[in-house]
Amino acid sequence: MSQEQEKDYVLGTHDEEIERLGLQHRVWRPRVLDAWRRAGLTLGQTIVDVGCGPGFSTLDLAGITGPAGRVVAVDRSRRFLAALEEARRQRGIGWIEAHEQDLDLRELPVTGADAAWSRWVLAFVKDPHVLVERIARALRPGGTFVSHEYVDYGTWRFMPRSESFERFVALVMEVWRESGGEPDIGLDLPGRLQELGFEVRSTRPLIEIVPPSSYVWHWPRSFVQVGLRRLVDLGRIGAGQAAEVEAEFAARQQTPGTLMITPLVLETIAVRR
After folding, report:
1. φ and ψ at 140, to 5 degrees?
2. What are the CA-CA distances from residue 29 to residues 22, 106, 164, 258, 272 (Å)?
3. How much is the average pLDDT of 91-118?
4. N or C: which end of the chain has fewer CB within 10 A?
5. Which residue has the higher pLDDT, 13 or 86?
6. For 183-196, what is the mean pLDDT?
């Protein structure tokens, strides 16, 4: 992948972003492991990590399948896959296959898989409906698809409300859509899966209301600085406006009684008939 393609990642593929994604995975890991357990992921399976990024989920999936199974990790970022390869090598995990591939362009490099996992990937690809079709073709009949996607990103706000922060969230969503993504893609996912012959076994809303002392708080907090930087780089806000939003967030973090509502995520577990 060229440097220009790497830059095309909305939030980049640099070390700081890999670190942020690691924090994000650690915050979400209990929810993810619970979803996988309820979906029946187990030893010896072939599981596809669709849009694996630096591979934090991939490594957990490899722990579930064990060496009798296989994890097929797919991402278009060579830099992310290099981070996964280094972690895989350090842990001595030989049953991960990493594939550098643009999810918008080709079929997934596996058929007959037992399960597929995707988190915050459909919201960024050019045609999420086509990618869901490709996931369906990668699964065997009876194979399971587990997904976490935003269903109402606009729930991300403070209690008491902050108008400046809500304007920031609205602008993030606006720029997201202008870039070809859809932050609330979860609204379409269950229906699309049913059209493709899946049985939707479970849908769950995942949302938190947390104080600054909560570990969960650090997940959205880690996005604010990088999100503001992107908006400044795109010329959508000035550096002064960005500083005001960051100062507002910092002030709320220090204010007793402050709560934050996280963006609403939809967990979907569906089985291919």
Report:
1. -75, 160
2. 10, 29, 31, 25, 25
3. 97
4. C
5. 86
6. 98
3-state secondary structure string, the chain?
Answer: CCHHHHHCCCCCCCHHHHHHHHHHHHHHHHHHHHHHHHHCCCCCCEEEEECCCCCHHHHHHHHHHCCCCEEEEEECCHHHHHHHHHHHHHHCCCCEEEEECCCCCCCCCCCCEEEEEEECCCCCCCCHHHHHHHHHHHEEEEEEEEEEEEEEHHHCEEECCCHHHHHHHHHHHHHHHHCCCCCCHHHCHHHHHHHCCEEEEEEEEECCEECCCCHHHHHHHHHHHHHHHHHHHCCCCCHHHHHHHHHHHHHHHHCCCCEEECCEEEEEEEEEC
What are the tens digits of pLDDT across the range 149-183? Answer: 999 999 999 999 999 999 999 999 999 999 999 99
Residue-wise pLDDT for 230-246, tens only, equals 999 999 999 999 999 99
| Region of 85 on the Ramachandran plot (φ > 0 left; ψ -120 to 50 alpha; else beta) | alpha
CB 236 within 8 A of CB 173: no
Residues near 145 by beta carbon (within 8 Å), at least 6 away in sequence: 115, 116, 117, 118, 135, 136, 139, 193, 198, 268, 269, 270, 271, 272
User: Hunting for tokens 């806000």 — which residue is that?
Assistant: 237
Q: CB under 8 Å, gap of 24 or more: what pairs does 204-207 form?
A: 204/266, 204/267, 205/151, 205/264, 205/265, 205/266, 205/267, 206/31, 206/148, 206/264, 206/265, 206/266, 206/267, 207/155, 207/261, 207/262, 207/263, 207/264, 207/265
The answer to whether 208 and 215 are in contact (CB under 8 A) is no
- What global pTM score does this model have? 0.94
